[in-house]
Known about the structure:
Chain A is of the alpha/beta class. Chain A is about 20% helix and about 25% strand. In chain A, helix 1 packs parallel to helix 4 (about 140-155) and helix 2 packs across helix 3.
Amino acid sequence: MSETLILxxxxxxxxxxxxxxxxxxxKRFGKVVVIAxxxxxxxxxHAISVSKPLRLKPYPFGDGIDAYACSGTPADCxxxxxxxxxxxxxxLVLSGVNHGLNASISVFYSGxxxxxxxxxxxxxxxxxxxLADFSADADFSASERIVDIVLKNHFHYGTPENxxxxxxxxxxxxxxxxxxxVCRQAYxxxxxxxxxxxxxxxxxxxxxxxxxxxxxxxxxxxxxxxENGYVSICPVNIDATAHHTLPQVNRxxxxxxxxxxVRETAPHFVEFTPPE
Amino acid sequence: MSETLILxxxxxxxxxxxxxxxxxxxKRFGKVVVIAxxxxxxxxxHAISVSKPLRLKPYPFGDGIDAYACSGTPADCxxxxxxxxxxxxxxLVLSGVNHGLNASISVFYSGxxxxxxxxxxxxxxxxxxxLADFSADADFSASERIVDIVLKNHFHYGTPENxxxxxxxxxxxxxxxxxxxVCRQAYxxxxxxxxxxxxxxxxxxxxxxxxxxxxxxxxxxxxxxxENGYVSICPVNIDATAHHTLPQVNRxxxxxxxxxxVRETAPHFVEFTPPE
Lengths: 276, 276
């Protein structure tokens, strides 16, 4: 059997401190190849480059690790890995360690998590790691221990299919971290606070800012875990179907609906009259 | 009670034929405001603009509809609507009609669906519509009838909370559409086929291309519906948690895990030794 092949990527860019911490730990578990954006791609969500071509350059990452800087998005990096660089699927994709949390609803905006999701879509086990510290020189020493523990578990117990793991780490020294909890995504959202400015030509422009608002009292959520000194692990679905709502939408009169002019040729349509 | 306020957006850009079809039908149900990207944003996923400011310009949309072209992503447009233009939440957000399907896994890459998701995150009922025709001059006449039927149902029966509806329409004349089915998202993915080219300076670059591969035999999926002449409606979750896998991840030894050097101060940690 060939050596375990681990792809490491992120959204902060290939020169971020967090991806170096992640690659260093990953190397204990197999051969590591780094493919990451050549510039910061935070907030990039699951964007892919459909209207511009992609560039890829070898990057002097250090530690004897093969690395490539990609001009595209985090999701592009995972696609380029399989399609252009590795010519096979990796055995595991790790994304991060992100400079800043990606808990709750941020999973949808995060390029870090989208790279991990892209791997899950391709059928490859994957995880995204994020530390609650935005600063460029954040301390990843506790994160390295958490990554190590999670990877030991992954290689021993396995990870469920068709998901990725969203792992968020509080900004605490290792000895103050209380443990690791498996959590659900907290309900919450970013409340927009746009800042309007006027450019030198007298035209307005807006900066998107916001503050996170938690709408969830649960103690089983990722936000609760982080605020209470735990690392959170949330399994994230690639099946976005809201299965529990299928019966409610099925109450709609759809199959029996309403196109008078085609009723003759399609007798399963019945006119639908909304109430006045 | 004030008039129903409907925000219309898309990812193909404010001058696309599909958004005009959607706004025209939406106008039957309330006051319509259009805020859409000033350029095509396909494949943009749930990207938001965190590192560049946003511009917004009134746009001559016609039909007496207030419209604004935004320099940002589809998700930005929804944020700008609430935060800058409307100063209130709309009652409904409609996105599309997209030129091209957004069924199955494409929900994650689609800017159209991300605008609808963004509305759901803000607690606003929302729907994304997509037609299985990429061409700029696609025929949206059947789509207009489908939008009308769906909106009648929404205003009569309501739509579940914390979801958005992903509605895909086959490329068929109205009289050949067999009906509308409530579906789950089909398992499938885009298989990358990168095309390598060499620029005039001798350097390689890659175009991302791909073909869709269905990994799902079900007859209850969106892809099955479209391939068999039905419109599909898939409710899409904003809770990405893979709830069904929580027990499996909980089998991991996490709470009891393993940091020898902190065992004294954190007695809930127990050393974990992976098998050789």
